[in-house]
Specification:
The complex is a heterodimer.
Chain A lengths: L1 E8 L2 E4 L4 E3 L2 E4 L1 H9 L4 E9 L5 E10 L2 E5 L17 E7 L1 E6 L8 E4 L3 H4 L7 E9 L5 H20 L9 E6 L14 E8 L8 E3 L10 E3 L1 H5 L3 E3 L12 H5 L2 H9 L5 E9 L4 H18 L4 E5 L6 H14 L3 E8 L21 E6 L3 E4 L4 E3 L16 E4 L15 E5 L1
Helix pairs in contact in A: 7-8
Chain B lengths: L4 E8 L16 E4 L4 H9 L3 E9 L1 H6 L1 H15 L3 E8 L2 H18 L2 E6 L4 H6 L4 E4 L7 H16 L7 H4 L7 E5 L4 H14 L28 E6 L3 E3 L15 E4 L11 E3 L7 H5 L7 H10 L4 E8 L7 H17 L4 E5 L2
Parallel strand pairs in B: 1-3, 1-4, 4-5, 5-6, 8-12, 8-13
Antiparallel strand pairs in B: 2-3, 9-11, 10-12
Helix pairs in contact in B: 1-6, 3-4
The chains are: A alpha/beta, B alpha/beta.
């Protein structure tokens, strides 16, 4: 499977009368964008605002961040949502680099993040370096959480597609080609270690899971994916009731840095043999079965020598991470894992996670989710007046919050340089 | 010019040149200036500091009369008003290590004076004091004195000047079991791939989260005479009387509640609800008896299968709770149940 990803570097966004790109600036007709989203009757109110890196702005109730992408040729993007049910990960896709579409909303049990575009909080996340189109929505009275979350996701993806459409007749700044061939047809030297990537999704319940090809991941067996599928939005986040530091945002799923790193080294230091997608069932027997099937695919179908394993969520998915690690190692597949740590605000906790296999001898830390961060006051707050129950305002003043509230400061797929070190 | 750092040196009877094991009962006393390893300390401090006094105490005295010894050492330190306490180094001497740890801890916590000691990693004082006290890693015996004291002086001067403390391997102290978020050179994903390749090639690699082992609790023996037993219901499923009178947290709990079942044949969804943030509470909120099965327990009472349902249930929320808090909550609940004569407990988990 081969995907040509056309990269359009965007340096600025300006609100204008037409939506188009000129000199790496994205001009947006916000009214037009608003109308596209407002067609959905599940919103009672929509406001759109553009924010820039360095703005003294705090965005609250951030539920998801999406990179604008559109399929230009040969297949679909965001299948099961704005795309038809078709094959993704091949053909040509265009993407706006430097841009994020942010979904903002609040309903009972929704747990949004807080994104500062300037100051100490901004330093902690890659997302503060993007220009954002912020979709601030309110639900129509009477709709339930699942309906609102579906409306939000559709709005985010429609906006992302609409903005990326500006690229269709243009030449990209850069063309990245992502290709690994079907198994056993590789031209890559057989002397290189064969490496797979195992991605464990959360699959808890409504609002606590991503969607794969438009469906929730509660009932499925581990399955093989081509890494390119993630780039075309095969999986999107609908994880709206989850501690932000413990979930994977759509932006980080599309730009999965483990996949990027494996591609970058493909044919030079390693042979990237594919991705296995598994879920994190709620019953131990199911976890064991899932881990066993995942390990079997990695060892006997992909023929991997090594595997990088990431997961999503806190608590019970730690067990899946460890079960998968153990089953892979027992079959002779070497593993390295990524995980966040829960060590209390002062970092004195003894247990980083709730399970630990003796086989897990290579675990990369993406930081202690509980550590407190001091944020400066800001000129403006957008995104609402209140947040999830345990984050209290006033939001324009200096704040002290756990780092997990800042989107992607802690990133379980590893799109962060934050780690936790022992002192 | 900055004034010299005033250092008080704590050492045992042996290094204080009082005597060996036969003098280990010597109570603490002080002398002006340095003695024994203090001479090396003095020369390493150079013009940056001075050894104002040395406190010498027998290891047995300190360990056998620990509270008394601490008080006496505390009072001795106070008379010199130092900026820094240097204790030992104790190398692999267990009783000496514990004394050095206690002295440093009391200096920091009771007198607000910076303190540093040195020990071999296997010294029992390390496990007891590494979190509160900076302990320079040393060799096992006094043969490693020069290197140990150099590390102690370097770190001690840094503490006294209130400079920010670096990482354990940079500063030479034993990791304290406290983790702080820092910024790495590369993305976490890149580190994961690179360490994996190293692991496959059999090259050395560093794991960033060390293996932790969990307690295994052996189950209690079966209850004899169940028909006379008092059975309690305990849950981490977050069931509370509506209004949450004890303000139990919906996640990361630090508290638990104890609520009466007196006169209740079943739990009424109008009166109880779950505030747990980690599972779908729909069914429990429709029928709280499916979490705290009072209805079934009353039937069993009537049938005589059990003696009695204990007249309170205990509850907390088990989601993203620090293990330390879980342990505290568990121990407290178990202690109360035991005191009230409960013979068995049904734990319902979610």
């Amino acid at each position: 499977m081969k995907l040509e990803l056309g990269i359009f570097n965007i340096k600025n966004i300006i609100s204008g009368e037409r939506t188009f790109i000129q000199d790496q600036t994205l001009f947006i007709n916000l009214n037009e964008l608003r109308q596209i989203i407002a067609a959905d009757r599940r919103f009672s109110r929509i406001e759109i605002e553009v924010v820039h890196p360095g703005d003294s702005i705090r965005i609250i109730n951030v539920l998801d961040v999406i990179e604008p992408r559109i399929k230009v040729e040969g297949g679909e993007a965001f299948p099961g949502w704005v795309g038809k049910m078709g094959v993704v990960g091949m053909g040509k896709t265009n993407t706006l680099k430097g841009i994020g579409v942010i979904e903002v909303g609040l309903m009972k049990d929704f747990y949004g993040a807080l994104l500062d575009m300037n100051g100490a909080g901004a330093e902690l996340t890659y997302y503060s370096k993007l220009h954002h189109i912020v979709l601030m929505t309110e639900p129509t009275p009477g709709i339930n959480q699942a309906e609102y979350s579906n409306a939000l996701k559709m709005a985010g993806l429609r906006a992302a597609t609409h903005l990326a459409k500006t690229t269709i007749s243009l030449q990209p700044n850069e063309l990245r080609v992502y290709e690994i061939p079907p198994l056993n047809r590789s031209s890559v030297s057989t002397g290189l270690p064969r490496i797979a990537y195992l991605y464990i999704t959360e699959c808890h319940e409504t609002l606590k899971e991503p969607f794969i090809y438009g469906d929730n991941p509660r009932r499925y067996f581990p399955t093989i994916f081509h890494p390119n599928e993630f780039m075309d939005g095969a999986m999107v986040s609908c994880t709206y009731d989850y501690s932000p530091g413990l979930k994977n945002f759509t932006y980080s799923i599309m730009n999965n840095p483990v996949i990027e790193s494996l591609y970058e080294k493909h044919g030079k230091e390693l042979n990237f043999v594919g991705v296995v997608l598994a879920n994190a069932p709620l019953v131990l027997k199911d976890k064991k079965r899932s881990a066993l099937i995942a390990a079997k695919l990695i060892k006997f179908v992909l023929g991997a020598d090594g595997v990088v394993i990431t997961k999503e969520g806190g608590g019970h998915p730690d067990i899946d991470l460890m079960e998968c690690c153990e089953q892979c190692e027992l079959l002779g597949v070497k593993s390295s894992l990524l995980n966040s740590e829960m060590l209390s605000p002062d970092g004195t906790g003894t247990y980083s996670m709730i399970a630990f296999s003796k086989f897990a001898n290579c675990v990369i830390s993406v930081g202690n989710v509980d550590e407190m961060v001091n944020l400066p006051s800001v000129e403006r707050v957008i995104g609402g007046k209140t947040m999830a129950i345990d984050i209290q305002g006033p939001f324009d003043g200096p704040m002290r919050i756990p780092i997990r509230i800042i989107p992607n400061a802690i990133s379980q797929v590893g799109l962060t340089k934050i780690t936790a070190e022992e002192f | 010019m900055e004034s010299k750092v005033r250092v008080v040196h704590y050492i045992n009877q042996f290094f204080g040149q009082v005597g060996g094991e036969e003098k280990a009962d010597t109570p603490p006393f002080s002398i002006g200036g340095p003695i024994g390893p203090g001479l090396l300390l003095k020369s390493l401090l150079g013009d940056k500091g001075e050894v104002t006094a040395t406190i010498i105490c027998g290891d047995n005295y300190f360990n056998d009369k620990i509270e008394k010894a601490k008080k006496e050492v505390h009072d001795l330190i106070s008379t010199f008003n130092p900026d820094l306490i240097v204790a030992g180094p104790a190398f692999n001497a267990g009783r000496y290590g514990i004394a050095c740890g206690e002295v440093c801890k009391l200096a920091k916590e009771e007198l607000d004076i910076e303190a540093v000691t040195g020990m071999y990693p296997e010294n029992p004082g390390v496990e007891l004091f590494k979190r509160e006290v900076y302990i320079i890693e040393t060799g096992p015996s006094a043969r490693a004195m020069a290197e140990a004291m150099a590390g102690i002086v370097r770190l001690g001067l840094k503490l006294a000047s209130k400079d920010p403390m670096g990482r354990p391997h940079e500063e030479g102290y034993i990791p304290r079991g406290i983790k702080r978020n820092t910024v790495a050179k590369d993305l976490a994903s890149e580190r994961a791939v690179r360490t994996l390749l190293a692991k496959i090639k059999g090259e050395p690699f560093i794991t960033e989260i060390k293996n932790t082992s969990f307690d295994q609790v052996p189950p209690a023996p079966p209850i004899e005479g169940l028909s006379k037993a008092i059975i309690a219901l305990v849950t981490e499923g977050g069931l509370i009387p509506k209004g949450n009178p004890d303000h139990i947290e919906s996640h990361r709990a630090t508290k638990y509640g104890r609520y009466s079942l007196e006169g209740l044949n079943r739990l009424d969804p109008e009166e109880f609800e779950s505030i747990h943030r980690g599972y779908d509470t729909t069914f429990v909120n429709e029928d709280p008896n499916r979490l705290i099965p009072v209805d079934v327990m009353r039937d069993l009472e009537k049938e005589g299968a059990i003696g009695k349902l204990y007249s309170y249930f205990y509850t907390t929320t088990g989601v993203a709770t620090f293990v330390e808090n879980s342990r505290k909550i568990g121990k407290a609940i178990a202690k109360e149940l035991k005191e009230y004569g409960v013979t068995g407990v049904i734990l319902t988990s979610t």
